[in-house]
Design goal:
Shape: flat
Order of helices and strands: EEEEHH
Largest sheet: 4 strands, antiparallel
Number of domains: 1
Structural class: alpha+beta
Distance between the termini: 51 Å
Oligomer: single chain
Helix content: 10-25%
Strand content: 35-45%
Length: 106
Amino acid sequence: MASKKIRDLLVKVGSYTDRNTGQEKSRWKNVGVLMKNEENGEVSYFIMLDKTFNPAGVPDKDNRENILISAFVPQDRNASQQSGGTQRSSYDDQSGGFHPDDAIPY
């Protein structure tokens, strides 16, 4: 069996207040994937990181020496296209979660 993506690896890079609900939400940056490989009855796992990801750039209020990378089940791209979420997710992927409309105060 070929390698299979089993998790997306994301880092929390900030937060924002949702204009519609007033709730605070996290802003995430996709930094890589966790892969699974099955070959000759052996299972192995490996990580592919985005080579432009710089861990030193992750916000750190507590001045820690490490960062947390969260692993999430990959979202179905077809479902996000049907819901109209592709434009927003493409901004998230390219801009570290910043969307131009988030900066507009009204």
